[in-house]
Amino acid sequence: MKNKFSKKEIEDKIKQAFSLNPSKTQIRKIKSLAMSKNVKLNEYKNKFCKKCLSCFDSNNSKIRIRNRFKIIKCDCGNIQRYILRPRQDLNLRPRH
Ligand SMILES: [Zn+2]
User: Fold this and answer.
1) Over the range 18-49, which residues count as b (16 or more CB within 10 Å of their CB) and which as e?
2) What separation in Å is there between the alpha carbon of 91 and the centre of ligand 1?
3) How far away, in angstroms, is 38 Cα from ligand 1 center?
């Protein structure tokens, strides 16, 4: 079966959807679309809850920064953590 959209088109769709505060249904669609083409959600991954698929906003989530981690707590109880430092910083650590 051939996919209808190119990778680029899917990236554009993701970008457009997240600029409009997408609903849970839209996020579910975006996720499956991205997965079907192996498109990475990258910076959009921390814009919605992995558990209940709500788009995070100030009403349904709390954001805390602690120890280089961005911690997002959703109203559904799900907690997501993201490292804030770019990956190359970690590679500078001495190896023992
Ligand atoms: Zn949630």
Assistant:
1) beeebeeebbeebbebbeeeebebeebebbbb
2) 32
3) 24
**Structural tokens at position 40:** 């990475």
State the Cα–Cα distance between residues 6 and 87, nearest whole angstrom: 29
Give 44 Cα–ligand 1 centroid separation in angstroms: 15
Position of tokens 């579910």?
28
CB distance 80 to 69 below 8 Å: no
Q: Ligand 1: distance of its center to the CA of 34 in Å?
A: 20
Angle between helices 24-36 and 7-19 (to 10 degrees): 160
Which pLDDT tens digit goes with each residue over 41-73? 988 999 999 999 999 999 999 999 998 999 999
Q: What is the dihedral of CA 75, 76, 77, 79, to 10 degrees?
A: -80
User: What distance in angstroms lies between residue 57's CA and the mean position of ligand 1's atoms?
Assistant: 11
Amino acid at 67: N
